[in-house]
Amino acid sequence: MKLFIVFMMAGLLQVQAESNAQTVSFTGRNVAITKVFKAIEDQTGYTVFANKELLKSVKPVSVSVKDMPLKDFMSSVLSDQPVGFEIHNRTIFITARTIAAVPTAIPAPEKEEPAFAEIKGSVKGADGEPLAGATVTVKGTRTTTVTNADGNYSIEALPNQTLVFSYVGFKTLEIQVGTRTSIDVTLEKEVGEIEQVVVTALGIPKKVRALTYNVQDIKGDDISSVNNGNFVNSLVGKVAGATINSSSAGNGASARVVLRGVKSIYGNNNALYVIDGVPMLNPIRGQAEDIFSGAGQTGDFVANINPDDIESLSVLSGPSAAALYGSAAANGAIIINTKKGQKDRTTVGISNTTTFTSPLMLPSFQNTYGPSEVGSYQSWGEKLSTPSTYKPSDFFQTGVNSNTNVNFSTGTDRNQTYISLGHTNSMGIIPNNEFGRSNFTVRNTSNFLDGKMTLDVGLMGGLIKEQNMISQGQYFNPLVAVYLFPPGDDFNKAKSFERYNASRNLMTQVWTYGDNGLMMQNPYWVTQRNIFENKKERYMATMALRYQLKDWISISGRAKLDNGNERNERRYAAGTNTLFASEFGYYSQNTINTRQIYGELMVNINKSFGTDFTLNANIGSAVEDVRAINSLFGGRLAGVANLYTYRNIRTSDLDLQQTSDTRQKQSVFGSAQLGYKNWLFMDVTSRNDWASTLAGTNNMSFFYPSVGLSAVLTDVLDIRSNKLSFLKVRASYAEVGNEPLAYISLPTYPLAGGLPVTNTRRHNPNLKPELTKSWEAGINAAFLNNALRLDATIYSASTYNQFFEPTLSSTTGTQSMIVNGGRVDNRGIEIAARYTKKFGELTWGTSLTYSLNQNKVAKLLDNWVNPVNGEVISLRELDMTGTGSYKMVLKEGGRMGDIYVNTLRVDEHGAIYVDPGSNQVVANPNTFVYAGNSNPRYNLGWGKYILL
Questions:
Q1: What does the pLDDT look like over 497-521, one tens digit per residue?
Q2: For residues 862 and 873, what is the distance between their CA atoms, to the nearest angstrom?
Q3: CA of 293: how far to CAs of 574, 645, 891, in Å?
């Protein structure tokens, strides 16, 4: 008998230990008790046994707990119910609660002080609403309760103990009991990454869970931590699906961003930049188109922005995300949100970042054999008695880039102000390469009419100076001479790059090696006496006004004025290679003035229907007017050496250029998102553009829609757990246009000798904009209590109506005509993963991005019929750009960026031909073979961060 009792007690202890080891996580409001029991069975493996008649008297419960012991959880949910429970052998029996008989006499204790006090109170959110089902725990104990439907609770605790208040989605709060018997608390909302709000097209904020397309969000600190003059370079490896190519021009240079592959053969492939909801003009200038030019490059408009003024950045990778921006965002959009003043806080921030740079990789050169002959660049001569000490790396200097920023922020409930000043000073790795930028920002946000009206006014400005941006190509590139310098000679002699010419009474270039057919000059002369200087001023003024008509509808408007003034000077000193200058030098000045005016009016609707449906809709209209004037005047100097003025320019061979570009686009658009129970969302957008670049055609107006659907499966299937915190699936389809370049739709006649040239391009009244049809599907998942996030997307896009300019028969009276045709396909995958772990006050995180894009030229110009003479023209192959030895070629079935190179000449037997006179092999100029592709096979990025 004793042995039986021992085993029975051991079994009961084991059951109790198992029940204490099992934990339950559950969140629900006014949930049927049977649903709670089902969650217990799924999470613990226990079986809940209950009589249906007994459960009829049980009321719905509201509870929100995380990892609560099973026994404590059962006590909490049944605390005010007419039933109780017992646990035996992994089975939970629901029993009728018995009411204890009241004794006729209660013996009074002799002398006992109450050790515990009953604490009562309420738990509310920041909006004042009661939080039903919030957990209240005595810290360090298993004493726990949950709030009722009114947010009230009651619990016993000692005066020296601490109460812990928690609720899913809110910050945990701890309060010591002390002598109080009533404690009311307000919990602050804790915005988890899944509940974050990101800014999408037209500045419309949306929850991450409601997005039907891929949006990648990047914080401002990730952008400004390392600054090389253009914040776009900081995005490399952080955005899945983005191919970012930095210019070779050094700090402050342009950066090309292509999202999801190259789509347009002749049109624009760059992403659109948007600042605080307004599209930004971003022309890219000075790009080299051959192997010779490239000097005097300049940064684009994005390089003018101070990264320390950026609060956050969202990348809309595909047309579905950017459909509301129209043709400007056919290649995706980068949404920039700038900082503004904070309420009830005054802060002053000062920061400085300084980086040092040096060449990462350099070609390897031999230093054992001397020149083939005196003055020769070729080093096939005799073996040197002592290996040369010449190293091309000695020409470079250590680059320094320093950024200093000061900002001031202050505000009240009704008015917030943000002011910042920034300065960047950079010295490149090439001597005499300098970059400087000064920025200022002022932004003020005010509320009027009892908070119904909001006015947001901002002014951003930048002053930029660029000198001798690093060159590419042969002309004015010091590296050509540095790399080809014969190693057997003394490079120190090149440092004396100029010598006094007594007959001319001035300093002239010293370079005894000649140009070798490459127009080489002394590399130090190139950097010190061939000056390329760019000065820019940029001002952007914006104003946004919003009025809340009712709690569910508002009207808003935005206006922007963007002015840019550039002056680019070129000064070549006397003694420069005469291909570029006269014996007295060369001088030119190029001025570019741009102006963008943007206006927008929009009605915003945010309304709920009952408890299940929500509607977010936006209807509006926008107009954008862009004007640019470009004037160039320059030439070889006439009679006075190194006098860089217009009056000293030789009039017989002037460099003259004057162009203007005026574009306007008018648009109407609309979007609507219907949500069901905060787990099912459907997006519909539409936009119609009237573009001046299609003036003179029958297609000035073009329309494109998009549709998307997403579902939060963890809510639909009720499968949320500690391991799987969030799971959403999404799919979308979009069509978006890409308008042509200005003036190609109109009949234009260039001037030659003051007279118009009429035999040029023929007008095409049927010209259409490019059209991209795209779909994407993906998942967004979070694991391990949101510590691990995974976003994955697959997509496919086809771009039709490519622009071609076939040569016409001379009988038509015109040389060419721009027509539509062809198709370019892109498909791929994007994966972004991030893991974050907190260690006390320290947060450690790591991220990984991977993207793969497959590009295909599906079709070029296929059987186009000339409307004049019925001639049928087809293009199966298209030469894009290149030199005598290599070129870019597009072929049907090939890819954008395919490179073809010459093959070596062979004799009649197929052997490599050797020229009998020079004993050298030569290339066959008429035969090209495929060599590779300029685009990456895939992009992979990895990073980590630590926050204190």
A1: 999 999 999 999 999 888 877 788 9
A2: 7
A3: 21, 24, 27
